[in-house]
Design goal:
One of its GO terms (cellular component) is cytosol. The chain is an alpha+beta fold and about 270 residues long. The protein has five helices and 14 strands. The longest helix is centred in the N-terminal third of the chain and has 24 residues. The chain binds 2-amino-4-trifluoromethylsulfanyl-butyric acid and cobalt (II) ion. The site of 2-amino-4-trifluoromethylsulfanyl-butyric acid has 14 residues, from β4.
Length: about 270
């Protein structure tokens, strides 16, 4: 069942979205060589507690994970990309870190993810990160009334194809609002002009993720973390987006988030990108 949200409900989702953006900015700012993933989890947990927000992850027990999740943020390093279980790992120079966060405030939910490179970034890692950002922006651009769900999926896979990255279609985006995971599924692969017609009030988490050289995944023995099957590095960018009469409204945009940058010199993404 797909529930369309009223403008007032979308405003309430935007409150959650602003806060998710704030936490992800902070996590991006803190992520650095020598920082432990557990410190980042701790920090996010503190911010959520002080805000009186509800973590959508804590105690979540979906079919794709083992038992209830006992963290508030997903942190995935290098070949890990989705549902990364925070654990005792100290970030190293050049690591690719994805942080994915969903919270509810007053019963309305937003979900967003970003990937940063800590320390000295390899050009090929920056290219991968930027490709997921570019795919996300391309998908948002077509998230308009009258377009189809397949237009969003096709926009994502077209950007991946341009860059030569294969696309996995098992895990993608989703409807969102009262809960983190609602209908419809938003595949990262699809055909333009097909599927559900987008209407004002449809709220979607759009989340392209690519691994450099494979569309296959493996499940980590920790029961949660999903990695690229060939060990190649992966990146993930996600926003919660409302489709309105006036076009797409990004509910989780970070303050100083720039549109996709091309040709940016290799360097630290995390600090200035926050
Ligand atoms: N935010 C993830 C998504 O986009 C879901 C993480 S669920 C968790 O769908 F249980 F792993 F936290
Ligand atoms: Co999501």
């Amino acid at each position: 069942m797909i529930e369309l949200k009223t403008p007032a409900e979308i405003d309430r989702m935007r409150v959650a979205g602003r806060f998710v953006a704030e936490v992800l900015s902070e996590v991006g700012r803190l992520a650095d060589v020598g920082v432990n993933l557990l410190d980042l989890e701790h920090h996010a947990r503190g911010m959520i507690g002080r805000r009186g927000a509800d973590s959508c992850y804590w105690d979540y027990a979906p079919s794709f994970g083992r038992g209830p999740f006992r963290n508030v943020i997903c942190l995935a390093v290098n070949d890990a990309v989705l549902h990364g279980l925070p654990h005792d790992y100290t970030l190293r120079d050049g690591d690719v870190l994805t942080a994915d966060l969903a919270v509810g405030i007053g019963g309305w939910v937003a979900d967003s993810a970003r990937t940063v490179v800590v320390g000295t970034a390899a050009e090929e890692d920056l290219r991968l990160v930027r490709a997921t950002e570019e795919a996300l922006e391309a998908a948002i651009e077509v998230a308009r009334p009258g377009n189809r769900l397949g237009d969003i999926s096709a926009a994502i896979s077209a950007v991946a194809q341009d860059h030569g990255y294969p696309v996995n279609d098992e895990f993608g985006g989703h409807g969102i609002g009262r809960t983190m995971h609602e209908d419809p599924h938003v595949s990262n692969k699809g055909r333009a002009g097909r599927g559900l017609t987008l209407r004002p009030g449809l709220t979607l988490a759009i989340e392209p993720w690519f691994a450099r050289t494979t569309d296959k995944i493996v499940h980590d023995p920790d029961g949660w973390t999903i990695r690229s099957a060939d060990g190649s590095r992966a990146a993930h960018s996600e926003h919660t987006v409302a489709i309105t009469e006036d076009g797409p409204l990004v509910l989780t945009r970070r303050d100083s988030e720039e549109p996709v940058r091309r040709g940016r010199p290799a360097g630290r993404l995390s600090a200035r990108d926050a």
